[in-house]
Amino acid sequence: MSTLAHDDHHDHKPTGLKRWFFSTNHKDIGTLYLIFALVMFFVGGSMAMIIRAELFQPGLQFVDPQFYNSMVTVHALIMIFGAVMPAGVGLANWMIPLMVGAPDMALPRMNNMSFWILPFAFALLISTLFMEGGGPAGGWTMYPPLVLQTGNAFPFLIFAIHFLGVSSIMGAINIIATVFNMRAPGMTLMKMPLFVWTWVITSFLLIASLPVLAGGVTMLLTDKYFGTSFFDAAGGGDPVLFQHIFWFFGHPEVYILALPAFGIVSQVIPAFARKPLFGYASMVYATASIAILSFFVWAHHMFTVGLPIKGELFFMYATMLIAVPTGVKVFNWIATMWKGAMTFETPMLFSIAFVILFTIGGFSGLMLGITPVDFQYHDTYFVVAHFHYVLLTGAIFALMSAVYYWLPKWTGYMYDERLGKIHFWLSLISSNVLFFPQHFLGLAGMPRRIPDYNIQFADFNAISSIGGFAYGITQLLFVYIVIKCALGGKKAKPRVWEGAKGLEWTVPSPAPFHTFETPPKLTKEMLEH
Amino acid sequence: MKGNSKLKSSFHKIILALLLTPFSAIAEWGLNMTQGVTPISQEIYNMHMVTLWVVTVIGIVVFSIMFWSIFHHRKSKGAKAAKFSHSTTVEIIWTIIPLAIIIALAIPATKLLIKMDDTSEAKITVKATGIQWKWKYDYLDEDLTIYSSLDEKSAEVSQRNSGIDPMQSVNYLRDVDEPIVLPINTKIRILTTAADVIHAWWVPDLGWKRDAIPGFINDNWAIIEKAGVYRGQCAEICGSGHGYMPIVVKAVTMDEYTAWVSEKKIEQEAKNNTKDMVLTMEEHMTKGESVYKAQCIACHQANGEGVKGVFPSIAGSSVAIEADNRLRHIQQIIYGKGLMPAFGEQLSDVDIASVVTFTRNSWGNNTGDIVQAKEVSEARSKPNVITAGDSKKEKIAKSKIDELARAR
Question: Which of B155-181 are b and which e, b meaning 16 or more Cβ less than 10 Å from the residue's Cβ?
């Protein structure tokens, strides 16, 4: 207890703008990341609202096709790079030092820089929407030659991607450096909480895949402005080469978004089942296998480009193989619940919904992985439904779960449990009304990324749009809950949740500005997970 | 209990009514993948259903166990948490079972894929070329080329706030001015490629889609077993007209197909020879408007004003007003410029003459100019005034050649 008093005593922090602009404190930077991600979630979300409004009825009512395409493109870029990734990095910043018993991140100044790049990168990207000719409209996948038809927005797009890549790589280096160098004595690798493990593996994915994307988009840049022909068939180049480069980044990217979510759920479920995580070691190995496999499946995004049959078979088998470690994870989560003593606070509800809905996304993923059938599914709303199940009801539900789980630790107050549950149920229902009918649309033959459609698709689109608007409005409730919790409420205890294990619950709530300035003495009980 | 079942049945009726009313027009579509009209599309449908059932059963079993646990192992029911945290046996079991299931799925998938890959011994070969935003079809054995664009009606209705309700037309955005005709019970090889950006050729009833990529030619095949009209659309984002390049396949008997080919050849012959046609202003305006609606409206819009910053306005444009620019105007349609594709091959002399006349006399462009087919025909043989001297690509290409020459 004397260490706690010591921490409190030194709990003076810089004030005003300086605190936030020059911050080297992992908690403040974590907070900045999380707030930024929430803002971007709403920016990207409002674009989704425009998309769903236009698709509510057949016919073109609100926007031109070109603007529609730029909404589709920028929505994806913002949600992936602006909302889900920064939210994950924000959680990592806040929680990893607390979970491994480190005083801060290993490279605090770089930490500041990796965050402050983001607002500028997105200013570049979003500014293109106000330019003559509009924003990038070739899809977030940026396939040439179409993307080369982008007007003035093009260099802004490319440099925004470069900045985002630099920011993410710095974040990843920081996490790896922290975890490998700053763990408290006794916190061996196989004692680390699973959230930390998933972030270490994610960091390696980031470092390995983002430079490839940076190379690819640089080649686009030189193709457009410097007369090269990497992707121009007329100049001896190959448009499909870009797709290989892009998806060599793009598939690991999928797991960059998903693995931290796995980590979150692996913290939350044991806490509310009051039972240790089942198969900890196999969870670590499954995460690592998924990460490694993710580098060998990229061409399943390109089955229709006309790959040689041997290539198609290889990528089909590799893709189907990912179902095995993913299955292991799902079974482990269920086995963790089995014979537990469960309670169902909001974080647990979001995590259980994650397990079910992410698995539904995984099922449609397995279907998409079967090459001959993918020739029908590819580039239809079936795919749109698939990746939104994995990313919205998957990654974002897990992030919501994490916020409710750790919010009392961050603010020192309990959030409003009743409102949290309302937020959960409304999100659950509306997101399924939003995305489930899109499976039917895709199977019936509706392609992705079209602003208008045949009347045979009218009914399901109307239903989907209603779900979309409901989901969008529901998230305003989330903001209210978070603000309300930050301003006050029932005082949170250091160990907020009865069954929660780990070092982060040994410090007071809210966590003091500086924690673990001297390494904590770890007891056996502290290392349980 | 009785009241309950009554309530249930009326509830069922309401659901059924809700489901059936809006879907009556689309009875055979709606929820699931089409079985299609080729042997391959049938097999794909079967593979799809097998996989769907496999994952559904797995889902039901796994989540039933989970929900059983959620209902019984809850603290409020006095459950005490067990302490176990691993079991090598069950972990091995639940690694091996999924592995066995995916192997069982991979075997038929592999066989099907190998079958789909075999394009040999096709009787007819058609090359589909994606162009922003229409399809060009070359019947390679017949020396016949047709262009297939969105039909005029859909083009009109799809304009933003057109005021026309799309619900009135069943084939809205799924109809073309010129469907391709293919014979039934014949192995047809369909090659896909593109002229500008990547497109994808997809008719769900044939069971597959394939990207159409500039510089690449992909080959595919189909044996259509049932006569009928099959609709699909471009499936790879290709710019603002991506939603507006449908594909319509009309499958007919071999005899009807042969008759259609010879008829089309005669039409093609006539189209290539219109340079002596002379039309009046009224005739040009009517014809020009219909060409405009079919070919130009997607970018330049119904009001001729285009989309600011992307597609230039024709209304008030110097190219479409000034007398000096008549040749430039005609040649821009023949050769294209920047994003604008070349129409010289697709449109006849008289078509181009009419659309030039129409655009020079609409939306306040009151030039009074009449362009006749002969002028277009002559413009085809004159040097291209648009690219004369100022093309960046040409310059780069030239400097590369010079460099190579120097190196040698």
Answer: bebbbbeeeeebeebebbbbbbbbbbb
